[in-house]
Amino acid sequence: MCKGSVSGMKVAIYSQDQDQTVKSVKQSLESHGIESNILTNKTFGKEIDYVIVTGGDRGVRSYFHRFINSTIPVLGINEFESSGYLAQTDLKEFPIYLNRLKKGNFTIEHLTRVGVKIDGKSVYPALNDVAIFSSKSATLMEHVLRVNGEEFWHDNSDGLIVSTPIGSSAYSMSAGGPAVYQGSKVFCVVSVNSLDITRRPLIVPEDSFIEVDDISSSLRCEVVLDGKDRFKVDKTVECTSFSQSANVIRMKKDSTTVSALAKKVQLADELLNMPPSSKLLLKTLEYEGSLTQKELVAKTLLPDRTVRLALRHLLDKGYVKRRVSLRDTRQRIYEIPK
Known about the structure:
Helix content is 27%, strand content 33%. It is an alpha+beta fold. Strand 16 (221-225) and strand 17 (229-233) form a beta hairpin.
């Protein structure tokens, strides 16, 4: 728990595209006498005490992708009444927490990130996971896994995932990996649909040097960071604990983690009976956050009719919810209930 109040506190706001949310955040800050500005590359690091990030979990990931060496504590804000792993506070309750922010009445969680090198070249660190796959799904990829220089397996599978505890309940768990309790000092390595039926997920200490070498496939292979950006890989991916943690402000107790993991485990069981298109839409919404039907079509490359039918199935089962866009009342936004 941080102690003492911050006199003359200075706050920066980071947002990708949610203009109305930014306006609401600025008004709340001003009503509490807190100075704020919009965070840019030029203003970053200039006497900033805290960063307020809009856009939920996706916005927080985007912030740490852009400002990879940031040590400033970050408070993530969801636009609507929902909470995530990284952004626990929604816009409605944000003003309630401002006095606590001013008094330093909160905790800061230091989340480990995965430092990544692709064919010897560094890219930004991942908060959730590092996924290595063929550029076309259901195409086998051969690879060698080494941990601290020692070969652990030589495998043929659909791909491989290295995840943090935060990311263990996302793509990794849907591929058969365990749900790792938040705060554990480990990484999880999952071989996806291995030809070796005895292959099991591997848990390693976070100070391990993980090397995926001799990567090959009939098609080009790619590395996907946090379900967002894709990078071509020729042979080797190296994963280590990144030197700077992601410092996230927690206003609520972590009891929400247990219930969230329980929901994930239940969903994993139900996923077994879901159509492939519904599974793909759920994974996309989990990584990308709230999206329109048109955006889902663009992200998944599925036909419009398939996306429409899959959304109907997910809505009927209660796996996703639909709301009206604040920026365009003719549009419907789809998201996973928290």
